[in-house]
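Forum: Protein Structure Q&A
Topic: Joint prediction for protein chains with partners

I've read a bunch of threads here and the consensus seems to be that you should model interacting components together rather than docking separate models afterwards. I'd like to see that in practice. Below is the full input, 1015 residues plus whatever partners are listed. Could one of the regulars post the assembled result?
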Amino acid sequence: MAQVTTAPTTGAANRGALRGFFRELTRSKTGFAGFVIVALILGMSALAPIFVDSSNPTDVDAIWGPPRAGHWLGTDGSGKDTLKQIVLGGQTVVLVGFLAAAITTVIAVVIGSLAAYIRGRFDGFMLQLTDIVMTIPQIVLLAVLGAFFSLDSPIALALIIGCLTWPVLMRSIRAQALSLKEREFVEAAKLLDLGTTRVVFGEIVPNMASYILINFIIAVTNAIYALVGLYVLGLAPLAGANWGIMINSAWIGGAMFLPAAMPYILAPIAMIALLQLGLIMLTRSLEEILNPRLRDK
Amino acid sequence: MLEGNGVETETIVHEEPASAAARPEPLITLRGVSQSFKTRKGDLQAVDNVDLSVGPGEVLCLVGESGCGKTTTARMAAGLARPSAGLVEYQGRDIWSMSKREFTDYRKSVQYVHQDPYASLNPIRDIHRTLATPLKKHGVAKGRKDGWQQAAKLLEQVDLSPAESYLPKFPHQLSGGQRQRVAVARALSLNPKLIIADEATSMLDVSIRIGMLNMLGRLRDDLGVGFLFITHDLAIAKYFGWHGRIAVMYLGRVVEFGPTPQVINDPQHPYTKALLDAVPEPDPDLTRTKKAGGGLRSSEIPSLADLPSGCSFHPRCPLFEADTCDVLRPELETVATDREVSCHVVGGASPLHVPRARSGGGE
Amino acid sequence: MPTTDPPKTDGPILSVRDLHVAYRTGDGKTVEAVRGVDFDLYPNQSLALVGESGCGKTTLGLGLLRLLPKLGSVPKGSITYNGRKGESVDVLALRKQELRKWRWRDAAMVFQGAMNSFNPVLRIIDQMGDTIRAHPDGERKPSKKEIWERSAEMLRAVRLEPNRVLPSYPHELSGGMRQRVLIAMSLLLDPKLLILDEPTTALDILTQRAIVDVLHELRAERKFAMVFISHDLAIAAELADRVATMYAGRIIETGTARDIFYGPRHPYTVGLIKAVPPVVGDLPELASIPGTPPSLSNLPSGCAFAPRCGYVEERCTSVDPELDPITERAAGQTHAAACVRWQDVVYERKVVAHA
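Posted by a regular:
Agreed with the consensus. Here's the joint model:
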């Protein structure tokens, strides 16, 4: 009762929706904080290589130097500035994280929704495939791959992580698509003979958009952990400088036992934890914004 | 309508019904169609050996309580479900053994309007895209501008005007009646010959139901669209299908069939009578004379999983005769020209006749 | 079934005066869904609130029992309930604890959508038992046997088989059975006022008939006043002693069932009646009311129905008419319409012989 329907034009409706989205986002303090953290880290990772001079000369006076003026977070075992490494070292982590998550999500959505819609042998085959992929021990596979190929490009790393992590999301996308498929508007599209591609990607998938978005962000956090794990274990090549490599070299260099090296090992860990925290806080409020059942409460 | 004063009124133009002999070649024919569902408790016979047909511009109303199999029958006619026995024919050809091209032709010619206008439109699509997508996909409209104009024309056909103001809207911005009109417009987009309307007006306010029925009636008269019209309300069936025919279904079988005026004014089967007796009228003196419970012995419909023996209506039937109705299953038999009834008591035939054998796969 | 004439000597059981109900909307505005409603309901009388979706009838029903959602409020008006012992209750002033007691015991409501009113994981006997236990008679706790017997008695009153229904879960019952269980539950504590929201909508015709029959029987036996909300005038013709037509949050015509169905004086009521297809008699030419109900946040000036009305005149867009008595009768029997041209509104129902 008493529903008030207004009739804005499409553009206004979209703009209104966007404004409403930000209003909802700012309403939840946690969500907004998460949004700010993620935006800052992403901004820093994207812009730092452009604005910050990438040369990081060795300061022979300060091996494992403590924080001081000029080296706010101290220096590492070869006398290089820690802060500069932190600022410059996010790019790979963020890039691989988002790229791997995108690959996982795309594979999961395409296969999951098609399997649910087509069913039959295709569905059975894909379910078998997920079982197989899920049983592959990632670390062992990466160790093997690392021995044969040089995994120094972030894209290759993202591809590997992405191709190994899609099955779980694929199963839940498939379950969602199975229920959406029974909805009457999907049946109506079928009756109009719009074709499988159209029905699946035009009618079913857009209705899962919020679910996909949230799972994409969760996939980013998972991919970042996977990547950092690879670096820490030394399974990925240790060229260049990024947060994962920093943790690894601190570990190898015995920074654990060197109180002066504390900032060097804690700084990348803190950055990764902060990014993960920001992402998770963001999903929580995204869930509230996008899931009408939670919103109405 | 309210006296003159420029109010737009619109009513169904009632023409003389076509005589039975002059019936056109049917579009959709169901021959001995059955549908059973497997459940834990065994097979449920949702539809049992139904024969029906609808021709161009004809109206066939399928009436019955929920669970009587009318929606399942309609879904089989629409090719949304495959019968477990029997044939569904489109212009004389079995739809499930058609070539791909023929099936596409059938798909476009037979459209379906769902009951719930809140579920049948994609919530994230505006009306323009909902209507233009099929037009473009099938080459009816070329380009964005043409798609827009044709979509607008479709909306005008369903009395949503000015169409331009509805095209950019999303379903949640429309009322239930407006959404249902959009659903009809979408069904019209490919120039169908038959529309299957599954309780298309039952979720709408009474005040807008008639407008919807009048609009559908005009489509039938102007465009020659045939209708398989499913409803549980005989008053609606009477209003929309006066010049068509009614098939009353009960627990998966047709129990009475005939031209609408005859079925409404002179019902034969006790179930049809009960349905008619139960319809409330906007007339206190008249409606309060109606028999309690529609004259039935029970208001509960038996479960399909546990069908009564003999005539499945016998536990509720006011005319129940022991040793006949609970033993023998009556067949649908012709009792007069164009009229069929399935009842031992009113059917006219000897109650102890031998039922006509019917194979599940049609004759 | 004959119309039971309400006793004219007693005062009303429920008096509503100038009731307003407002909702806060998402963007911080308020919209009035009920805009000044007056009516009296007498003991054992049944009143039908009819109108299209969005006319405020459900909101009014919820407001009467103070069951409005969080965003709703009653900015203005009064609701007085006169109880069986002659006590007068100011419903809007009741505190939470008193309100809970008053509901169920004195006034109960059956909501639309029977399935949502049940807890799906509890059997019917548990749900009925909860209601009985929550409102004990004095200090003594009712025993299991008493609960079963009281529940069984109510179920028999709505023509259900207690031994089958009580141990069942809600999903094991048909829609019509669930609706009857709800009616039985609402009457467990013998309230004197029952509010039903669309009690027959979305049910099959024969099931509708069963509910109507049960309500007739229950009212004859138990003597309670009833307000029922429906968009279907035919159901009102079945069940109502009095009918109130609502439009855009106001009552625009009220009268006895015979007044409304045989001599409606508001063009909107006429439109609603004309929209119901009859199953008896000739095929009439029917038309629905043109246009759609106005948005409550943007009401037209003057009479809210004017933009859709066939009788519209210039003054209709400037004056919002009040209910004007057409036939003055004893208290609670008056026929009144809120239309400046009610004298010109004629509607004659073709008298049809029952087939």
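Chain C touches chain B through 60 residues (CB under 8 Å).
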